[in-house]
Amino acid sequence: MGLYDKIFVNLEMLPVTDKEKILLQNAEFQTNDLDSGRQDYRITDDGFLELIDWEWESIAKEIRKKILGYERLEDVHKDIFFHAHIYKPNKNSYQTCEFKARFSYGKLDSIVRV
Questions:
Q1: What is the pTM assigned to this prediction?
Q2: What is the Rg, in whole angstroms, of the alpha carbon atoms belonging to the chain?
Q3: What are the backbone angles phi and psi of residue 112, rounded to the nearest 5°?
Q4: The predicted structure's pLDDT at residue 88
């Protein structure tokens, strides 16, 4: 079992139904197509891929991530597959939603459902 990176994306950018958007609201998207080093990435609303730079901080007996900034990744020229599992309460089961994001020079060309 490998390590996954997290990828954050605005649900409005995904080719899903309105019902699926509701189910995906708290979903965590994962990918193996980047560094696979448990990093966090985001696809910005204007379509750029960015690495989220963060560090752990301790606040009142709680440890959380503190975001330090974002690094735009302009050298990414590939397809990035990412997925999330959504729970379907009426069927008591999970569904995997998988997507392919195509990047050229770190800029999003398209996102399609796989």
A1: 0.84
A2: 15
A3: -125, 155
A4: 76
